[in-house]
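Action item from last week, closing it out:
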Amino acid sequence: MHVQTLGGAAPLRVGTDAITPCRATSLRDSGVVRADASPDSERATADRFKALVERELPRLYGLARRLAGDDAEDIVQEALLRGYRGFSQLANENAGSEWLTSIVVNCCRDHWRRQGRRVEEVELDEADDFSLFRRIADEDPFPYSDSVHVDFLHQFGSEDVRAVLASLPELYRLPLVLVHMTGYQVKEVAYLLDAPLGTVLARLHRARKLFERELWTYAELHGLLKEGAQR
């Protein structure tokens, strides 16, 4: 993937809005992003940015795949272009991983807005009634198994998991991926999304319940509830 050289760095906003040339908020306030561009030469800046991208690209692409599916490549390309424009203002390059993650997350959110996606809230009772553990135990899809719950999960390949993730509303998919598949702490996700901690915890709980329910639904629809069904 090639990063185009763009002139004129601009501050970045991270939070609910897209990352666009405007006054920055949390990252600058925390000292991660400096107010003025670094005096380094353009070539030195480009070399350091290239080194950062080479380290982070596989992780960023994996994150984008889980969040946006087949649109991941376009989203990562857009994120890297935005990142290059603002890299000279990154005061602490040790925070480069978090900084690039925030850009990818915001690019995903921009992508969903451009598609006209509406925020889909799910009532707690609707999702909370379902228990994947109980459903597997009650249905017993693998009667000769000594580890039926593990065997159920083993039926899912990586593409199956991505398909289940894609069925979740973005509001819940985002914290689920960041916490359980990327390894961020809940407090870090709240900071990244510029959302109250209690709000993120509530969404994460609903996300887990929805994910369980959609795993079972997907398994029923795609014939995974039998021995050796993994594709």
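Closing note: Residues 1-25 have pLDDT under 50 and may be disordered.
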